Amino acid sequence: MAAERSGSTQLEQWISLGATIVAPVTVLGALLFYFGYVSSASEYACFGINVDTIGLSTQDYVMRSPQTLLVPLLVLTLVSAAFLMLNGVVRRRITSVVASASDPARQIAGIRTVVRRSRIPGLAVLGAGVVLLFIYGYIRDWTLYGLVTPLLIALGSAVIAYAWRLLSMLQRLEEQPETAASDGSALARRTAGVVIYVLIAASIFWATATVAQWSGRGLAQYAVAHFDDLPGVILDTKERLFLRDPGIEETQLPPSQGQVFHYRYRGLRLLIEGQNRMFLVPGGAWSASDATLIVPLDGSVRVQFQFRGQPP
Fold it and tell me: Considering only CA atoms, which of 307, 238, 232 is closest in space to residue 267?
């Protein structure tokens, strides 16, 4: 019986450990998928393509997300490191000032007044972000709206949350633990703290999604400026496609016995290959009148990829 209980306890520990690991991994995978999807949707929308028609897999979106998240992760890491350093300096300074004061209670009261006043700029910044939320209908065309608004909300919320943490620290320095009579106010403060942290997380998520959209547009703009970097494609078809885009050359193949392809098109570039289809774009200078050609890979066409201009 003891052995069975020991085995059961060990199994429960392993299950608990697995749940602890799997849950964050699942959330991380969902976030990577989301940001990869947002970036890809923004990128291929520039070529008139709904990303859902490409047929990319979940793994494809996850693999595309690191490039999108690189800048936000670097910024968050640097900001977090700077905050930790500043927080350490502030806390050490407060502790040393209180410890060396002849009247600690009076010194703490003065610091508390300064901390409470510091919440005013935080409330002002948070209020500015909330105002931008309510006037979205009037400034929706502002390019920076999707980045400035969440950053204002996150910054204002962070200032307010940090001021609360410093006030809690000052209360501990006074060695005045909360009594039962203050349970209601303590619960209210904890609830407000949770709301503030959720607001910060949601704002960071929104800002990161905006950066993902910009990243997708940047990738599209780079592709347009460097069409020569895309693989060159020679397309043979059974019927004439009547492609009129500049730079595309149409040639009628000479008839021969057993020949099923009658037209050849040069000057096309492979934008992306999806599920059993290829998306081709004209290889010349970008024009708003151009179109993306969807070619099924079902034997109805013949595709050749051209070598690069210079030998390896």
Answer: 232
How many residues would you count in the chain?
Answer: 312
Q: Is residue 4 part of a domain?
A: no
At 22-68, the pLDDT tens digits run 446 677 788 888 999 999 999 999 998 999 999 888 888 888 888 88
8 A C-beta contact, residue 244 and residue 96: no
Tens of pLDDT, residues 267-301? 899 999 988 889 999 887 777 778 889 998 888 88
Distances (CA, A) of 38 to 139, 201, 206: 22, 18, 12
Tell me which residue range forms the domain holding 206. Answer: 14-224
Q: Determine the Cα–Cα distance for residues 73 and 145; give it in Å rounded to an integer.
A: 21
Residues 115 and 241 in one domain: no
pTM: 0.78
Give the number of other Cβ atoms within 10 Å of residue 176's Cβ.
9
For the segment 146-170, what is each residue's pLDDT rounded down to a tens digit? 999 999 999 999 999 898 888 888 8
Domain end position, chosen among 224, 243, 260:
224
Same domain, 56 and 188: yes
CA distance 53 to 278: 11
Residue 302 CA to residue 307 CA, distance in Å, equals 17
Burial 86-109 (b: 16+ CB within 10 A, else e): eeeeeeeebeeebeeeeeeeebbe
Q: Which of 189, 224, 259 is the last residue of a domain?
A: 224
Q: Report the number of distinct structural domains present in the chain.
A: 2
